[in-house]
Structure formats: structure tokens, C-alpha cells
Amino acid sequence: MNKKLYFPKVAIIGVGLIGGSLAIALKEKKLCGSIAGVGRGPKNLKAAKRLGLIDSFTTDIKEGVKGADLVVVAVPVLSILRVIKEALPFLKKGCIVTDAGSVKDAIVRGVEKVMPDGVFFVAGHPIAGTENSGAGAAVQGLFKGRKCILTPTPRTDKRALKQVKKLWEAAGSDVVFMAPKKHDKVLAAVSHLPHVVAYTLVNTVSDMEKKGGGLVKYSAGGFKDFTRVASSSPAMWRDVCGMNKDAIVKVMEAFEKRLGKLKSLIKKGELSKIEKTFERAKRVRDSIKR
């Protein structure tokens, strides 16, 4: 048992890919006594129990968080603030609340306004995942070698921050700190935009297919690999777009400008400039650690 980091009771609200995978890590590292799963769907919660991700489950937030030392909120971003507000009256003194949302600024500002004395919030975002969802998508070692961004503010309790940092490090993550607004700008570029582009590319090909040609059946590895994330939850990404719209629109505009320049080069047949554009992208892509 890791006595330096141990939570007698953990409540995970939203036992899906992220919440379920974290539950696996908590049990594997013996960092908790028991895990209560909380959610709206009994079917998913029963699956999580059957898979051994959680020890008990309930659809009642009050019952689920009662006596919890750590509450992990792994629900869609637009629901995070509401869920935390609903749970707050039933949290014991000393409880640490953390989240896994991919948008941080609005959540942090909203939660800090309502957080009572003696209960601590540490905003987090593990940069890991797949296009799958639900308890059945939980993966052992999902966070190993991946970054987890924590976005503390001057109001964040230092001890709670240290505990959450240790938690994600124990799960295998490389933890970094970042201001909430900076987080949202960074993720708009490297995560949110790629999803928007993937959805749009699939819809573009689908539109062309309706005009004839059966294009999708000819899709090979490149198309499938590039658009894999378009199989992600539409509702989740709808919420992300709604919550981080300013940063997403800004990076979309930059993308449109860059795409427009490439379009112009192709129309003009400026092959050497096209190649230089591709070479620059290749150098950047090759520098990214796999």
C-alpha cells in the first residue's frame, strides 16, 4: 500500500473510458480502499461493476459521494459544473474533487465560485483516450507515458494539488501545470481542431458520395487513420465546441487561412512551393514523439 497516497473511498462520477481507466490504475496501484461508481445509466454502471472497475454503484450523487476522500468527475464538459454543484452539499471536509474535462477556464471559474471551505478542487485533463466510450472502453495503462495537465490557480489548495499530481503520476502520466486559459488555447489547436476537421472531412466525402461514385468503399489506411477520431462521441464534442468556442473558432480561422494558401498553390500548379509546404509539415510531424 502506498501510504503517502491513499484514498479510503473514491467516487467516480462518469465511469467511462477515462473514469474507468483511472479506476483500473487506482486498484492496480492499491491507492484506494473502495471505488463507488456514479452515473445516470444503470446498464453502464452494472457493466463497470461486472468488469471489476468499481466496488459499488448508484445513480444518486448524494449516496455516491457520501464519505468520499476523492471525487473524480469524468462527465462531458458542459455537465461538470452542474455535477460538482450537485455533489458539494454532501462532501465531507477534506474531500478532494478533480475533473478530467478538456476545457478548463470556464469550469475552473465556475467551480471556484461555489467551492466551500474545507473541500478542495483541482482541475485536471489527462491527454489520453480513444474514440470509444463507456465502461467497456476502459483500458489498463491508458495514461502511461501520456501528459496530464493540471490547471491550478492562486486559490488551489497546495496539498490537494500535490495529491492529485501524485495520483496521475502513479497512473503513469507526465504531469504538467498550465494556466486554464492557456490550456484551452493549446487544446483548441492540438485536439479540438483535429476533431472538427475529421468530422468535416468525413461529411465532405459523404456529400460527394451522394452525388455518385461510392467513395467511402475506396477509403484506405490514410483516410481511416486520419478520420478515426470522427468515431468519438458527437455529444461530447458538441459540448467541447460550445464551451471552448472562442479558442476553437480562432484556430479554425488560422486553419482556413493556411488551407486557402495551399489551395491557391495547387490551382496555380506551383509544385515546388507545394513540396516546401509539405516538407515543413513533415519536419514538424516527425519531431513529435510517438
**Radius of gyration over alpha carbons?**
21 Å
Physical arrangement of strands within the biggest beta sheet: 3-2-1-4-5-6
- The structural class is alpha/beta
Shape: elongated
Low-confidence stretches: none
SSE topology string: EHEHEHEHEHEEEHEHHHHH
The CATH class assignment of the largest domain is Alpha Beta
**What proportion of the residues is helical, as a percent range?**
40-55%
CATH-defined architecture of the largest domain: 3-Layer(aba) Sandwich
Q: Supply the number of structural domains.
A: 2
Q: How many strand segments? A: 9
**How many DSSP helices?**
11
The end-to-end distance, rounded to whole angstroms, is: 32 Å
- Give the CATH H-level superfamily of the largest domain: NAD(P)-binding Rossmann-like Domain
Predict the CATH topology of the largest domain: Rossmann fold
Q: Biggest β-sheet: count, sense, barrel?
A: 6 strands, parallel
Beta-strand portion reads 5-15%
- The whole-number mean of residue pLDDT values reads 94
Task: Give the topology.
Blueprint: E1 7-13, H1 17-28, E2 32-38, H2 42-50, E3 56-58, H3 61-65, E4 70-73, H4 77-87, E5 96-99, H5 105-114, E6 120-122, E7 124-126, E8 147-150, H6 158-170, E9 174-177, H7 180-210, H8 221-226, H9 234-243, H10 245-268, H11 271-287
Helix pairs in contact: 4-5, 7-10
